[in-house]
Amino acid sequence: MQRDLAEQRFQEIYQSHQRHVLAYFLRRTDATSARDGAAEAFLVAWRRIDDVPMGDNTLPWLLRGLAKGARQPAPQSGPPRSIGKEAHHSWGPRGTLT
Question: Is the pTM here over 0.70, yes or no?
Fold first, then answer.
């Protein structure tokens, strides 16, 4: 798709569905995280603009992508637990072993 047409298509998608996508996240998280999630959703839409369906199928496509992302396992917070010889070490900043 030509860049001008892609930008126009993206603007249409954003204007039509931004409130719905943000509401999806607001039902599931705090306001800051909701804005971040919505931004990520529209980043994906921009990157895959040629794959975004037209008309009534646009919002379900956006939300299906969000639902798929929600089903991905959450990243571990902090470093993995250590068993054995390394168990006496502690984890420093940014996951470095001390």
Answer: no
